[in-house]
Amino acid sequence: MPHASDPAEERSTTVRRSALRMQQPLDRFTVFDRVAFLIGTVAAVWLATLLVLQGFRTWWGLGLALVVWALLAYLALPRLHKMLSDLYVPDYFFGRTRTVDGLLGDPVNLAVDGSFEQLDAVMRRAGWHTADEISPSSTWGIIVSTLTRRSYPTAPVSNLYLFGRRQDVAYQQEVAGNPKQRHHVRFWHTPPGWPLPGGARVDWLGAGTYDTDVGLSLFTLQITHRIDEDTDVERDFVVSSATTADDSVRVRVLSDFTTGYHSRNGGGDRFITDGDLPILDLSEVEPSLTDTTLTASYVAEKRARPPMTTIFGAVVVLVGAVLSGLDIVNALADTAGLDEIEIAALWIVLGVFALALVIQIVLAISMLRGGRRARNTLIVLLTITIIGAAVSYLDGTIALGLDFALLNATVQCLGLLALTTDSAGAWSRRRLTDDLEPAPHEAPAS
Fold first, then answer.
1. Kindly report the CA angle at 213 between 211 and 218, in degrees rounded to 5?
2. To the nearest 10°, the Cα dihedral for 108, 73, 394, 386?
3. Backbone phi, psi, residue 166, to 5°
4. Pairing of strands 96-99, 160-162
5. Whole-angstrom Cα distance, residue 53 to residue 69?
6. What does the domain layout of the chain look like in residue ranges?
7. What is the dihedral sign for C-alpha 133, 134, 140, 146?
8. What are the backbone angles phi and psi of residue 247, rounded to the nearest 5°?
9. Strand partners for 271
10. What is the mean pLDDT of residues 67-95?
């Protein structure tokens, strides 16, 4: 005879299932990256400490203060924020994005039903431009345009995260050709079958804010854009521009999607919202042949281009290989006083080091082509090198001063920090994750 079900147990099971469905889905390929991220964080703090200790021993070493600030503001502090926020920031969707540091970012204030082709067509017709990917050239471009007040309609935007990944696409509109002030909105496609609070389903979620100026982040000391406090005005502007550009766009509103509230984003900017969530229905939008071509070109370019952190990591690895190669040349040039056996042993050791350098170069090239195992192998090699240098420094075998040894340690640390970023890890895994979640132009049906 079957046992009677326990209502309390059934309710508890239902609550657990509901909580799991509300979680932001995590990438299952993160364990290795999180361990590497922790090692990179320790390396950043260690490197900053070394630079401070060595820099203040000489008057000219005070110039390293700028380097130390950059390490702390852009590497060490963000990583410490990320590690701590993973512990105390709730892991479920509650209408907020996250910064790369793990801090709570801009509010989610917009949703879309439709494919990426439809979304891209409407936004282009409304006068929006897709933001450039963050790269050395685009970063330099926005610095120059900001200082000279020169127009840059496709300037990059900082990355925000939802569902454990950065935005799939970002759009912007400059105001009077001034890159300091711009409308911009980021979009993320939702995982298949994932429900909003209350059970509604949409294809895309967006976060729209208006940049008013450039300043320092209150929390990380980084240079960033400051946003207008009333994010609802920007949300309504995005909706109005879409409906004006295409008569087939329909809008419905989830009233009181969240309780109206005020808070601060990851840059420390205050914002307020009434908690409503407009949903743009683009199911009747018909992209033209030109729209489809532009969308396909954007998707192909975005998927093929490695992020700046991966490029920087590869360059740093190659620089480290060159520096180690110079060490080999110096050792070969200084064989005075050695007998034949010692010279032969030296050649063997140098041969092993030379082989390791060639392997690093091959791995760096493979990583730039999208090799996931190449990146993981380089992380392991850099970690071993850094740990070896740290042990040698602590036991007095080597002394890290303002010299070649410190330069080499700095290069190794920077390489590890670059390769253990979220963007570098996500790009190296894109071929695997492409099979697990829909591509931006293959949004799940609502």
1. 95
2. 60
3. -75, 170
4. antiparallel
5. 14
6. 31-84+308-420, 96-304
7. positive
8. -65, -20
9. 263
10. 73
pLDDT recorded at residue 436: 36
Q: State residue 55's pLDDT score.
A: 57
Q: What is the pLDDT of residue 34?
A: 74
Measure the CA–CA gap between 216 and 63, rounded to whole angstroms: 21
d(CA 130, CA 296) in angstroms, rounded, equals 13
Helix count and strand count (H, E) for the chain: 14, 14
Task: Using the structure block, give the residue that is written with the tokens 């703090």.
Answer: 45
Collapsing DSSP states into helix, strand and coil, what is residue 280? strand
SS3 272: strand
Highest-confidence segment of 77-81, 93-97, 318-322, 415-419? 93-97
- Give tens-digit pLDDT for 225-243: 667 788 899 999 999 999 9
Q: Does 333 score more than 70 pLDDT?
A: no
What secondary structure letter does DSSP report for 230? Answer: B
- Here the tokens at position 12 are 């508890």
Burial 368-387 (b: 16+ CB within 10 A, else e): bebbbebbbbbbebbbebbe
Is 323 buried (19+), middle (13-18) or exposed (0-12) by CB count in 10 A? middle
The band of 8, judged by pLDDT with boundaries at 50, 70 and 90, is low
- The tokens describing 165, both together, are 């990944």
Which of the four pLDDT bands, split at 50, 70 and 90, describes residue 283? very high
Structure tokens at 423: 């963007």
CA-nearest of 214, 187, 184 to 203 is: 187
- Confidence class for position 192, pLDDT limits 50, 70, 90: confident
Say what the pLDDT of residue 440 is.
Answer: 45
Question: How far apart, in whole angstroms, are the C-alpha atoms of residue 219 and residue 44?
Answer: 18
- Compute the distance between CA of residue 85 and CA of residue 82 in angstroms, rounded to an integer: 5
| DSSP letter, residue 443 | P
Q: Which residues contact 233 (CB under 8 A, 6 or more apart)?
A: 210
Nearest residue to 367 (alpha-carbon basis) of 414, 316, 310: 310
